[in-house]
Design a protein that fits this description.
By secondary structure, this protein is α+β, with helices and mostly antiparallel strands. The chain has one domain: Chitinase A, domain 3 (Roll), CATH 3.10.50. Helix content is about 30%, strand content about 30%. The radius of gyration is 24 Å and the shape is globular.
Amino acid sequence: MNRNSSRSLSSVLMALALCVVMLSGCVQPSSDREQQKQQGIAFLAENAKKPGITTTASGLQYQVRQEGQGATPKATDTVTVNYRGSLTNGSEFDSGNGISFPLNRVIPGWTEGLQLMKEGASYRFFIPSELAYGESGAGALIPPNAPLIFDVELVKVGQP
């Protein structure tokens, strides 16, 4: 290696070291995913203190808005529902009326929550990310580690 090459390499290494030192102060202590997870945990902890909120062993939270009188679904049943899904900031990401599906083919929070209901009931579910889409999120509308809020009316248990 000649003298000029040595200086060039030395300059590059010095510049690289300077960049590393400067950038080390800019790195966030936690990732966006971790921050979203912590915000979700805080939201659910505060929500659990509100009157009328029940928390199950899995961490699912729900509020009974109206009791029903009909059948209660099992995980293997098909159900028909009206629903609205939103993030904790209130932004709606999905809704539907008269939507039917097998209960064991949706997120775990729905499978668990709907089994608490009877036909005609209306509940609000607060679903921890672990019972929803977890670290992967869902498309552009549901970020990773996001707890979800669903207003659900159980219209029918059984085939539509």
